[in-house]
């Protein structure tokens, strides 16, 4: 995709975030997505190494589920993914809770 097309997509993401009460600019949304992808890849790759205990990350399953149909998408988020819910496990003092969270909330975390 051309850089201008990505800028339009991130503008839509930023606008959608604002409608949901999260005030992040275009560049902040882009950078957050890049950091989420980087963390996802780090956790995924650590689980492939033998002898390592692996890294736990509360959003790993949500990111895996979101990215699985897009196997090789570079850094642009899927256009229809912001409001699709994914199961997210959150650890609390009373145990692990399974909740459903739209990606827009994961981006805001």
UniProtKB/TrEMBL annotation:
Spell out the InterPro entries in the cross-references. Answer: Myb_DNA-bind_4
All residue ranges annotated as the Myb/SANT-like DNA-binding domain in the record = 2-64
Coiled-coil ranges from the UniProt annotation: none
Q: What is this protein called?
A: Myb/SANT-like DNA-binding domain-containing protein
Specify the taxonomic lineage.
Eukaryota, Metazoa, Ecdysozoa, Arthropoda, Hexapoda
């Amino acid at each position: 995709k051309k850089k201008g097309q990505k800028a339009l997509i991130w503008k839509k993401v930023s606008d959608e975030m604002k409608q949901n009460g999260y005030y992040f600019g275009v560049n902040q949304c882009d950078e957050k997505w890049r950091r989420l992808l980087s963390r996802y890849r780090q956790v995924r790759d650590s689980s492939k190494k033998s002898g390592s205990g692996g890294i736990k990350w509360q959003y790993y399953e949500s990111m895996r589920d979101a990215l699985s149909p897009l196997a090789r998408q570079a850094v642009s988020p899927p256009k229809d993914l912001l409001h699709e819910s994914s199961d997210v496990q959150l650890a609390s003092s009373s145990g692990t809770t399974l909740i459903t969270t739209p990606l827009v909330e994961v981006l805001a975390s």
